[in-house]
Amino acid sequence: QQIINAVRNTQYTAGGTNTDTALKYATDTSFTPANGMRPNAAQIAIVITDGQSQNAGATAAEAKRLRDKGITVFSIGVGGGAKMAELNAIATDPDNTHVFVVTDFDSLNQIKGSLQQRTCNVKPTMVAATPTQKLCGGQADIVFLLDKSGSVGQPNFDKMLTFVRNVARDFNIGPNDVQIGVDTFSTGFDHEFKLNTHRDKASLQAAVSGVSYTGGGTNTGDAIKFMRQQSFTANSGHRPNVPKVAIVITDGQSNNKALASSEAQKARDAGITMLAIGIGSGVDDAELNSIATDPDSQNVYKASTFDALTGLQGYIAAKACDNAAPQPSANPAPAQTCGSKADIVFLIDSSGSVGPNNFQLLLNFINTLVKDLDIGQNKIRVGVEKFSSRPYNEFNLNRYDNKTALMAAVS
């Protein structure tokens, strides 16, 4: 009841359409632990607007920054003033499942079912884990392909190994669970250890710590080739019908981009899901995209520095787990439902072109969505931010744990 009341209290303001500042506020303020964001919940932003922003370039840049934080962004355009190119620039890829367009505010309810279903399908991208928690109840063969070229340096290479250990910590390691192998590359390629070399977490962690740094060039193409030919084979421990996942981590551009792209395509054609992580300003986004499995928005990751890798640990563990095959079980785990954890922030256009009557229709639409959600401290949380000339925070994710009060605050 708290959430319903909160919806009702949201006021119309009028003004310009500074969508970029609203997205920036969502990234820097709304989606933070201090304001209720939970690391083991799906993070979703729903942007609803009836017009083009006053700075399309800044809007696209801020939307990317929000997505890079792991937030799944849906955009809803209302009426003829909303520009499809900008809606696409705001939303998470693929656009056909994250962008909605309706003719007027009265028509918002026509997309209610589709929006609910698609938000329900969003999985958490950040995983809060303890070493004893079983996060991945399936089987996967995961190979890390690590750049140890001269530009990395020993201290940063050590940070990369720490990242690998931390990701591995979130899995059950063993011949019937997740297996992990490590390959490294610079000018040449080193098969550090096979998928089936280490059958328990302790020995795996020790082996990762023992991987040595060499320096050299950045021969990514040949490294991907050798990984495909040597690491994902029965001799190296790959198990039939178990998903294959490769995680490529690099801080620079390869010395042969065409080769890297073609070898990545061969790896994908061989059934290997390719995740690409680029570190620092020396990486080529186009090359990362050519290495990774589509969609790039879900399989390409960027870290500004090697220290920032820690912020990707949960994302990568969760993504690798998404690809894991479920283990045969007499008592399978129940399917995840919309009653599971999600943090949803609505960014709603309150500019002058909307008008008070349409703004009320927009609030009514949000309330119809909220009515069907399982609201609670350990379930779904909702925040609302409106924007016109500047963003206005109506309430944070952790403000309401009761549906009635939330809906009242919105409307």
UniProtKB/TrEMBL annotation:
Domain of life, source organism: Eukaryota
Keyword Repeat: yes
Matches recorded under SUPFAM superfamilies: vWA-like
Signal peptide: none
Record's keyword terms, sorted: Glycoprotein, Repeat, Secreted, Signal
Pfam families according to UniProt: VWA
Compartments (UniProt record): Secreted
The VWFA domain, residue ranges: 1-115, 141-316, 343-411
Database matches in InterPro entries: ECM_Assembly_Org, VWF_A, vWFA_dom_sf
Predominant location: secreted
GO cellular component assignments: extracellular region
Database matches in PANTHER family: COLLAGEN ALPHA, COLLAGEN ALPHA-1(VI) CHAIN-LIKE
UniProt-recorded name of the protein: VWFA domain-containing protein
Organism encoding this protein: Elysia chlorotica
